[in-house]
Amino acid sequence: MVRREAHVYSGPVPDETHVHASDGSGARGGTLVPVTGSGRGRRRWLSATTTRAEKARAVRGLASLGGLAGLLVALMLIPTACTAGVGARDAARWFQTPPDDLEGLGVPQRSTILAADGSKIATFFYQNRVNVDLDDIAPIVRKAVVAIEDSRFYEHGALDTEGTMRALVTNLTSGGVEQGGSGITQQYVKNLLLVQAESDAERQAATEVTVARKIRELRYAVALEEKLSKDEILRRYLNIAYFGDGAYGIEAASRHYFSKHASELDLSEAAMLAGVVRYPHAYNPVANAELARERRDVVLDRMTELGWADPEKAAKAKERPLDLDLEDVDNGCVSSGAPFFCDYVQREILTDKAFGETAKERERLLKRGGLTIRTTLDPKAQRAAQRAVEKFVPPKNDAHLAAAEAMVEPGTGRIKAMAVGREMGDGTERGKTWINFAVDASHGSSIGMQAGSTFKPFTLAAALDEGMPFGTRIMAPRSYTPTGFRDCDGKNVGDPSAHLRNSADGEGGREFSLVTGTRHSVNTFFLKLEKEVGLCDTVEMAEELGMKQANGKPLEQYPSFTLGSNPVSPLRLAAAYAAFAPAASTASRSRSRRSPTRPARSSKSRRRTAGRPSTRASPTPSATSSRACSPTAPPPGWASAVPPPVRPAPSTTSPPPGSPATPPTWRPPSGSATRAAATTTR
């Protein structure tokens, strides 16, 4: 399960005399330092009561700041002022050469899984961010951010020399760090390097206050200013900046705090968000509403001072409360309307090398690649499937049963629904589980369920494939001893000590045709039919329709194969059944071309592949829960197209990932979706 990161202010909440020390980048971190100035209730460091030690520390700190500012200004002048020396010339060339990895720096985007109708199933992200174009951001928002962060943004280059020197003078006279010297371009670079950091060392390098870091940022900033327009830099900055409370970028912040798009923000809302950027933890309006409101008013005053906001409108905006309308974005599958289908999709992406060579690469792609994953899930069918499994097997039933259902569309293999009769969550809690009982272990940790009589059609299909007429009659005894059976390796797998019976009285001791024997689902009839067709041919037919054990191993070959002794998943069974419906339309033509006599038994080298569904397609069968049974033996006469329930082993696996597509299930030629269902005890 992917949990949403909680951003909590780690230090004491700043009051009117404290803010976070920062260079204006808006990045997280920093320490609390006294704010100096003429504000009411504030005191200056350099006063009559200031000790010599305090003055010395202030002078040393400001000297370092002055030296750093001087170095940055000097770097900008290197190309023209220091061309005489070879070293200076090389340094100038290095500084002005765009970094090789400039184009490779991307911003993490959230990925979304969609149903067939375009509705959202789930969202995955490391950072909750939605990229938008500049035209999708209200002009008042752009004005507010530029006003408070870098009012001369459109007038200077990568380095605002005037702003840097002004900040230096202000800080020197105030005795503390009152203004930052970084412009929007440098702040964008700093945030960009921070989101690209993957280790603690890289994150520290992206935030530490050192000359090397500032030079690196400035070099990137110079390259960006040469390559991109001011509007594009501003757009990128607004999309990458952190706005507190888990919201990254202006669009995500607008949706989170006001439940509206960034294009719909008004003056008061724009000013509040612009104010948050500088110190997103301290000015978080959810955690520190009063401080956020005061900061908003500072932004409104600055906009008025610059002539970018009407004084009367700004005054009215200052009178308004914050008016938050919070909207949270769930991260992962747990809260999804189709959690186990979502889990299946997620697992498909995390295990398929088409999405990355390593598991880490695939996870990065899913959680920061901005993918739009369109699936075949039908929300209406999903709701119906969920109601069905919960109606017949309630999540908190006393028998500790769990039902699963998968719906696959014949002819396409599209998955239309996938339901498990439990909530997704900690399995130690009653009515919850991390295990996706509808799918194989590779996509949900399930060990599968014995299919019971739903395996009988594979024997019937093998018989018809070999030309056996529907009217063929076979004597079905009341009890049957399975002898003379051989697997595909020629090994004798009969069991003279076994006595297999029918599930209901009156079903044995007489003849049945292929039609009536199937209609009554007579166990002894299908055991004799399996021997007539051949155990190997029956197994091959099931395999060619995509069947295998839920643990990924080949099907076990024993006489009880036709009675469904193999543990399989409802989804794989549904996919196999879905292959029958498209074939039905050509069945009569195929039979008319066949010899009425039974052909020679097919060999493993001549496998049937036509109509075999792909497990990577999305199917539509549906599963219905019926009853639970012990996994030790297949139910004797399960006469329905629904796999019988079994008791799965307890699982200690961690929360599962998800799924984008699933296999099919059988459905009659009429066009209704096939259902594969099972009930399991846990």
Report on this model:
The protein is α+β, with helices and mostly antiparallel strands and 682 residues long. A hairpin with a 5-residue loop joins β3 and β4. α5 runs antiparallel to α6. The chain is elongated and about 110 Å long.
| Cα distance spanning the termini | 21 Å
The 3D shape can be described as elongated
Backbone structural class: alpha+beta
Strand count, sense and barrel status of the largest sheet are: 3 strands, mixed
Query: What is the overall number of helices?
Result: 22
List keywords for this structure.
single chain; 682 residues; 3-stranded mixed sheet; 3-stranded antiparallel sheet; 22 helices; elongated
What is the strand and helix layout of this fold?
Blueprint: E1 18-20, E2 32-34, H1 52-81, H2 86-96, E3 111-114, E4 120-124, E5 128-129, H3 139-149, H4 161-174, H5 184-196, H6 200-207, H7 211-227, H8 230-240, E6 247-248, H9 250-258, H10 267-276, H11 289-306, H12 311-319, H13 339-351, H14 359-368, E7 372-374, H15 379-392, E8 401-409, E9 414-420, E10 423-424, E11 432-433, E12 449-450, H16 456-465, E13 473-476, E14 479-480, E15 500-501, E16 510-513, H17 514-520, H18 523-533, H19 535-544, E17 567-568, H20 570-578, H21 580-584, H22 587-592, E18 674-681
Parallel strand pairs: 3-7, 5-6, 10-11
Antiparallel strand pairs: 1-2, 3-4, 8-9, 8-18, 12-17, 13-16, 14-15
Helix pairs in contact: 1-4, 1-7, 3-10, 3-11, 5-6, 5-7, 5-8, 10-11, 11-12, 13-14, 16-18, 16-19, 18-19
